[in-house]
C-alpha cells in the first residue's frame, strides 16, 4: 500500500563508522535501510548510543556516510556534494537540535540566529529578512520584540521554539527533529510538540522525529523505526508497533516506559532484553517484512515464530 | 500552611464577583521581557565589576599606565640627563618632607662623623642636620652618625629635588622609572598582541581543519618550541643589534605557542557544539563558521591568558635586562633599573625599591585582572545571577 | 508530630541572594514524610523541589538563607543544625542519590573503597567486614559479579551501573530516609525501569522512607504513594497517587497531566502556555494564574488557601471555593482518566 506514496528520503544500506584511537572502529550506524514518505511523521527511537542521532546527522550530511546511498527528493546526497546539491540540501532539509541551550550561539541575537540561513541562501534585502524573521517568531508564539534578545534570556521551551523558527525560516520540506523535547520539562514538551504539529500542517512538512521516549514518539509519529546498537531492529506503523511489537527489544522498550497511570504501573510486568537470546550462529539475520509494512530484523526461523505470534 | 477550614468566615466573605473566570477565552501569550536586553559584553562587564579584587587590579593598572604616559614629563628632568655631582641622591618630595614622617625627606645617614665638626657650617650647611644617632667614643674621639637632609648638605635649596632620588649617574629615578615602565609595558603589550594574533590564526587553522593539517602544524610548533629563548635572543642581537626589536622578537618567537594551543583545543571543543552544527546544516561556509561562531566564543579564555601573559612578559624582559641582554644605556626599563639598583642595594636601597614596587604591582594586578576576566568570560556563568 | 511521621517540614521558606535581587525559591512548603512511604515531589525546574530537599540535607548554596520554617526530624529542628551536625546526619540517617552518577563518584577511587569508606567511618566496621557488606550491597542493587567489580574504577561502569553504585553507597549505612533527586533522568528507559524496581525492592525490605523528586509523571506513577505537586515555590496540590492521577483538582495538575502523552494518546496535547514566573518578584495571589485558563479574578489578588478534598488530599485553588463557578477538568484529561480506569478494570463512577 505504501508503494504508491512518494518517497522523500531513501536510506539504502547506510553505514557510518567512527575511527577511534588504536584503530578501533565504532559502527554507529550499521547497514540501515529505510524510506520516508512525503508528508509523514517518521519516528526513530532507541536508547542513547544506538545510533539514531548519528543516522539523523548523516542524513543532513553533518557526517559523511562510510558506505551506502541516501537519496533525497531524487538527488543523491551521499557522495561528495557539488555546490548545487549542497545548496539544495541546505534549503530543503533542516534540523532541530536537542539541547536548547547548546544549539543557539550565545553571542548572537535571536534575529541573527534566525536570519543566518537566509543570509546563507543569498537574501540581501534587509527589510525582507526582518519581516521573514518577525513572521517566523510570530508563528512559534514569540513576540517581534524578542528578536533583539540573546538566547540566555529565554526559558528552555522558548529557546527550543527559536530553534524551530531557525529551522523553518527557509521553508524546508523535510525536518530532522533530533530529540527536540527530551531536554525540556514535561509541561513544556507539549508546547513544542504542538508547535511542531501545527508547523507540519502549515508548511506541509515531512518530519523525522528522533527520541528515546517511546511515548512521545508514538504520539507524534505515523511510522516508527526502533534502533538497537546501530541496527534497525523493527519498523512498523505506530499503532501496529504498539499493539503487536515483535522484536524482543521493542517489547522490552514498551514495557519499560513509565506511564502516568499508577494502577497500570503497579501491575505492569517488565520485560528485559538480552542480545544473547537470539541464535544467529546458523542463520544470518536481516530486516525482513513479516507482514506488509511491518519489518523486523530477524532470521528466517524467527520470522516463522513471529508470524505464529501474530496469528494467535 | 493556611487551610480554608481554619479561616472559613474570612474566605467566605470575599465577594462573589471575584470568583469569575477572567481569561477563559483569551489566548495566553508569552510575556514580553520587562528588562532591557543585555548583550554579551554588557553581561561580561556586569559580572566583571562584581569582582572587587579584579576591579581594583584594573584601576591600579590604569593608574600605572597613566603615570607611564605622563610621569616622565611631570618634572624638568629627562631620562638621559646626567648630573654626576648629584649621583645617588636620596628621594625627596618637599611637601612630604614638611610632614616630618621620616620618608621622602631627602634624609641620608652619614656614619662615623666627628662630633666636634657638627657645628662647622662649611662641612654641614645651615639646617641640614636632622638627627644625631649612636653617639659613641672610638679611640678617644667622640663619633656620631649624622642624619642629614642630603640636598641641604650638598648646598641645594628646596626648589631642586629628585622625587624618588637619583641613580649613580645622577639621573632622576622618577623620570626613568616611568619611562622604563612605559617601555616595559610597551614591550609586553606589543609582544602579547603579536602572540595573540599569530596564536589565534595558527590555532584556528589547526583546530578547525584537524587531521593531517593539524598534524603537520603541530609538529612545526613543537620544533619551534624546542629552541632555547636565550639562544634565539642572542642570535637576534647579533643580526639586529640590541634594542626593542630583538627583545620583542625574543618574546614572540615562542610566546604565541600557548595561545595557539589553547585556541586549537577551544576549536576542537566548539566545532562539535550544536550551534555550530546547526549553522552548518543551514549551509554556512567555513570562514563564517570560524569568525562568526567559533572564534567569538573561544576568545574569552584567550583574553584572559593574554592578560596573564603581560606580567610574565614584563618579568622576562626584566630578567633579560638583568643578565645584560636587554635594553642598553641610556634606555631605561624596569629590568634595567633593577639591575643597576641592585649594585648599590646596601647603600641606596630606594633605587631598587621603586621599580620593584611597580613590577610587583603590575604582576599582582594583571593576575587579579585576568582572574576577574576569566570568571566574567566563563560561558557557564552566562546569565547566572 | 505523630508516631508515623519520620520527617516533618513546616512552612519552609528559602531564598537566594543574586544580583538581580532576592529569589524566593521556596515560599512556605509543608509536608510530612511517613515511615515506609514514598513521597514524590513533582514540579518543573525552578519550582523549588530540589531546594527543599537540599534544605533538608543542609546542602544549600552559600547565598541561600532559610527565611522561616522548621524541618523536624527525630524532634530535632534541622533548620538550626550547623554543618558539623549535618555531617553526622548525612549518610547515617538521611542519604541522598543525585541525578548525575558520574559527578557523585570519585573517578580515581576504586568502587569498593568508595562503598566501604562510609561503612568504616560511620559504622566502625573492620576492613574485612566492610568488604563483605559492600559486596552484599552491590549484589542487592543488582550488580553482576560484585567480587570482580569491587576492584574496578567508576569509568569501567556504565551510567546505569554507576547509579546503582551511588544507591549502594547511599544504603551502606542504615539510613532511614532516602532522598532521590531525579535519580533516573539521565538514564535510558530500560535501565531506568531496573533502577526504579531496585529502589522499590530495597524500600520494601528496609522499611525506608523515600522522598522522590522528579518531573516525569510516569516515574511518579510507578514509584509514589503520595505526591506533592509544586509550582513556583509552593505545594499546589497534595494527595495519594490515586487521588492525584484520577481525581486531580488543581488546574496546574490538570495541565501537567494533560501535557504528557501516554502510549494511547491521540488527541492534541494541552500545552501550558507562557513561562513560569520570575521568582525575584513572584506574582501576588496564585502564581499560576497568569498561565491558567481557569483563573478567577481573586487569583490575581490573593493566594488561595488549601481546600480539603479528603483526609489526604488538599489543593490550593480558589476553584474549590463554594462561590467559585463549577469548572471541570479538561475533556482530554477526563477521557484519559476514564480510559485508564477502564483499563484497570474499574467502573466509571
What does this structure look like?
The complex is a heterotrimer of chains A (312), B (385) and C (349). Chain A has helices at 52-59, 83-92, 110-120, 126-139, 156-168, 186-203, 214-220, 238-243, 248-256, 262-267, 300-311, and strands at 7-19, 25-37, 41-45, 67-72, 75-76, 93-96, 174-178, 206-211, 223-228, 231-237, 286-291, 294-298. Chain A is α/β, with parallel strands linked by helices and 312 residues long. Chain A is globular and about 65 Å long. Chain B folds into 2 domains: 60-71 and 169-381, Orthogonal Bundle (MetI-like fold), CATH 1.10.3720.10; 90-153. Chain B has 13 helices and 3 strands, in the order H-H-H-H-E-E-E-H-H-H-H-H-H-H-H-H. Chain C is α/β, with parallel strands linked by helices and 349 residues long. Chain C has 2 domains: 5-224, Rossmann fold, CATH 3.40.50; 229-343, 3-Layer(aba) Sandwich (Rossmann fold), CATH 3.40.50. In chain C, 34% of the residues lie in helices and 22% in strands. In chain C, the strands form 2 sheets. Chain C has an 8-stranded mixed sheet with strand order 6-7-8-3-9-10-12-11, sandwiched between helices. In chain C, helix 5 (127-140) crosses helix 7. The longest helix of chain C is centred in the middle third of the chain and has 18 residues, at 189-206. Chains in contact: A-B, A-C, B-C.
